[in-house]
Amino acid sequence: MVFSAAQLIRRDGVGATGMRDVAAHADAPRGSLQHYFPGGKEQLVNEAVGWAGGYAADRVGRFVAALPEPTPSGLFAAMVRQWTDEYASTGFAGGCPVAAATVDCAGAPGSTRQAVASAFTRWTGAVAAALVEMGVPPERAASLATVMISALEGAILLARAEQDVRPLTAVVRELGPVLDAAAGRPGPERAPEDREPGRRGAGDDDPR
Asked: What span, in angstroms and rounded, lies between the C-alpha atoms of 25 and 181?
């Protein structure tokens, strides 16, 4: 049910996600909500946000392990590719559940604001640790991790608004050299033509 809540929040937001919707999505009896989530919707949302933050943090290590030569730009490209692949295959309906909960709950009292802050902290910490392993000075790693996640979240928002992955490919292209320079590495080569590699609109047939 926590997973189902995260999926509904990332699509519809916290306000439009009801407990009954979560039970239906999870194919679970309604009575189980009271049993597992005595704190009601707030508890369920908090656990969904915590799951999403942990999932994002855990994926950082898997992204790095899959890179033939780990570099900061390669890590960021892998983080973004998760979203370009999703949008190419299923459309632009979904966003980040942590960001969605932030939008709905950042100004509200209660524990959800703390939950989203903790989720971002965990994710940022995982990215920063990976950057340090790649040679980024520790005093810069946390700031660059914040920049990477901020750029990714903003690009997701713009991509959903435009129904185009252009913002996502743009942040990879522009931030890659900056990230690699922080680790003392040469930046990735740019394509000679004046175009965005991998650009794809919602109506294109070829996902590449």
From this structure: 45
